[in-house]
Write a structure and sequence with these properties.
Blueprint (H helix, E strand, L loop, with lengths): L18 H8 L13 H10 L8 H10 L2 E5 L6 H13 L7 E6 L2 H14 L8 E5 L2 E3 L6 E5 H10 L6 E6 L7 H16 L4 E6 L6 H7 L4
Parallel strand pairs: 1-7, 2-5, 2-6, 3-5, 6-7
Antiparallel strand pairs: 3-4
Helix pairs in contact: 4-5, 6-7
Amino acid sequence: MEFHDGGEFNINLRHKTTSEYAEKLETAETNPFTGREFTQKYCEILKIRRDLPVHAQRDEFLKIFQSSQIMVFVGETGSGKTTQIPQFVLYDDMPHLKGTQVACTQPRRVAAMSVAARVADELDVNLGEEVGYSIRFENKTSNKTILKYMTDGMLLREAMEDHNLSRYSCIILDEAHERTLATDILMGLLKQVTTRRPDLKLIIMSATLDAEKIPKRLLGCRN
């Protein structure tokens, strides 16, 4: 894998990027999120990430993400959707340049913590800085955080305090097929929020095709 100079985001390409654009930033000498040189560990992890099944769909994902406010992504367990899709979003949405965040919900606290730690390693950042997590009784985030993994209950609590979830540019509801009470309530709330906020993007992710029943009934979105 060849690494090269030039690791800066172009805000003019926000929501217009391609996988080729992202891959150039991923193989730059410096981390575009921190300005620091990538570590050897990052280089080794990147090779593994690009072998994940979800990477073959990166361009297709970007085209739908860029042209739709709400989308559903179905990927079987092990495809890499939980760790990779939020990163695909970061490279296209560029929340750090807009002062916003991307949220990715998980039904369980342990999952939110472990996935956040893994993605922090994959992005070569410190856990709690650019990538963090929020669970009941523990908030490991900072003013640098642009990607936050959290339980669906924590996002629901935030929605009670900020009805427009104004800090987020994209919200990802992961493991939607598990149909927790909090996730079902969030879908109803987010349907209203996306109507009030056309700038907010919503991604519903599931490991099963049963997720197709959810958007048709609640959101009327594009698969």
